[in-house]
Amino acid sequence: MASFKERLAAAMQEKGMSQAELCTLSGIPKSAINQYLSGKFKPKQTRTYVIAEVLKVDPAWLMGYGEDASEDEAMSIREQLLLDTYRTDAAFRENVDRLLDEAAGIATTHIFRAAKSEHGTIAPAMEEISLARLRALDEAPETDEDL
Hints:
434 Repressor (Amino-terminal Domain); 2 domains; 8% strand
């Protein structure tokens, strides 16, 4: 777990902020910022919140709790990439769904769907569905009279 001084220095570097700028924006004397960066002292809670607000970081993270911001940010970017690919690539989505079903122990099967739509058109297609969903379809009413 990184210390306050390490996280303060990292946040300042990431934002490209000098000690003088941090002092001006936070209203905290430069001597105090120097002591925080050297690790000689840690700020009181009120100053920690002011510094966190100026640097736009989580106060808890600045105090040394939680993961490093860069690790959280990298995971966030990776998750966004996965989500974007999942939404735009049908083959990728099918593979991910199959892996998730396998991991969850959900058995799947392929069916040929060739039902008529309300407009009378048939859109035949191969589809992979879970066996539980297939059972639910099998037990569903087939006509309005069955309801």
